[in-house]
Amino acid sequence: MSETPQLDGLADGYVPHPETAAKRYAEAGLFTGRALWQIVTDTATRLPDAPAVTGAGTDGHRTLTYAELDRAARARAAGLLSAGLRPGERVILQQHNSAAFAITLLGLLRAGAVPVMTLPAHRISEISHLAACTGAVAYVTEDGRRGYDYRNLATTLRERVPGIRHVFIDGEPGDHLPIPDADTADVALPESVDPDLPALLLVSGGTTGLPKPIPRTHDDYVLNAALSAEITQLTAEDVYLAALPAAHNFPLCCPGIFGTWTVGGHVVFTDNPSPDSAFDVIEANKVTVTALVPALAQVWTAATEWEPADVSSLRVLQVGGSKLGLADAQALDAALGPVTQQVFGMAEGLVCYTRLDDPRELVHRCQGAPMSEYDEVRIVDENGDDVPDGEEGELLVRGPYTIRGYYRAGEQAAQSFTPDGYYRSGDAVRRQETGHLAVTGRIKDTVVRAGENVAADDVEENLTAHPSIRQAAVIGVPDADLGERISALVVTSHDHPPGEPIALNDVRSFLTDRGLAAFKLPDEVHIVPSLPITAIGKVDKKTLRAELAKENA
Ligand code: AMP
Ligand code: DBH
């Protein structure tokens, strides 16, 4: 290990790999000791004049080459250090997709600071929780030009979390300070990092409780980027569109932004993933790869019918974050050519991909196979015993790029790991003989109706096959007779006449015809204009349940 500078308590509350495991990963060549920011400095040496980032949408259309991006990041690092930031300190980063986001992120990394990767949709409750829990000293965000004024959030944050010494604003700073840049001749940047300490902290999706910080080290994140780039067959010719919020693991590193920078490709940012805007960006920049959540993939599929923009440059369209239904996967390929790649990942580590040469049938029916042969996946029953292939169980995982613990998140979060270091994903999956996994639901996402366990996902997937239903969420509602009754909240499809009801009996007989057991049939169906979504765009059942409970109180 290189000389460890004073890293401001960064290691406190961090759970590293046990020494034997770390040694094995290093000996296998998986851990390389490079700093995460070296991905960009190395590419800048090889391909200084290649385009590295372009900001589309509200960001203007500025393109930076690798040499320019590297220079801008160093100037930002120098500015941040001059302003009093110290290596190892945690900094809350919250910016929309833009070239500015890329420069600030790299500037923080280059300064040795540890960015906490929050999403634009996070608000004071999540931001103050993450700031307090990580011991963050600074908040870097932007002005109000994208609809929400983060300067107000910054003011409240300073009142609530006294540890926040600095607020820096991209754009009009208002009562705060602009993000500083400085001459690198005047400020020495740290030349090395401790590669097995956290480089950045991702934020868990938070389907239960407040989000938890996820420490990803230089070694593991460099590996995550490289393996993902290889599986997606990325080269310097590729143009990756960051359309999902860039701070999320999926667009950030699977292969996303860091994977594209690893191979010298071009990252285009947009803060508007709707097809009327994104399709033009794809055409203008000849985008070859992008990533979406299933709800957006559905909208893109439909939009190919009416959007005039030419999106034929797309080679791979990754879909992940929640389950992509079979019919939706098929429809996406039918609309755009065989571009779908399913991605089943978690910010905690493990990422599964369908491979580009997998048969399309397999791509449509499963969520992918682990990216590394060093991923140790177990699928277990409620007693913790392994289930045979083909049977459903909870996915447990450990491996070179999967965390051993959350960062400073307390006793309860420690329950997410087994004594021998596996992360308990909470996902219910089945393994096929090929090693591919099919996600069947969340282990706790069940309705207990009249003593029978009904998996919400099973009913939801069958519901969305109904021609009038585009999206569905199934929730258990407390019921005097049944214990819980099955409530289906549905968003109607484009073909369904607006305002027209959907009859419960019609839905029940449709599901019965599809072979669904009688005890799984919904007891009620409600049409809703939309389902609440999380910061990245997954259906937010926590909020749905709370809303339903309020209505039924
Ligand atoms: P996060 O906490 O945001 O990292 O979310 C990770 C979780 O998202 C996983 O544990 C799964 O529950 C879910 N997820 C991600 N990708 C998929 C997918 N392709 N299919 C089903 N669920 C997914
Ligand atoms: O949902 C996720 O967190 C996710 C999905 C796809 C993820 O972290 C990833 C790929 O890396």
From TrEMBL:
Entry's SUPFAM superfamilies?
Answer: Acetyl-CoA synthetase-like
Domain (AMP-dependent synthetase/ligase): give its ranges: 42-407
InterPro entries for this protein: AMP-bd_C, AMP-bd_C_sf, AMP-dep_synth/lig_dom, ANL_N_sf, ATP-dep_AMP-bd_enzyme
Looking at the record, the residues that make up the AMP-binding enzyme C-terminal domain are 459-538
Q: Tell me, what's a Pfam family for it?
A: AMP-binding_C
Which superkingdom, per the lineage? Bacteria
PANTHER family noted in UniProt: LONG-CHAIN-FATTY-ACID--COA LIGASE, NONRIBOSOMAL PEPTIDE SYNTHASE PES1 (EUROFUNG)-RELATED
| Name the UniProt record assigns to this protein | (2,3-dihydroxybenzoyl)adenylate synthase
Organism lineage string: Bacteria, Bacillati, Actinomycetota, Actinomycetes, Mycobacteriales
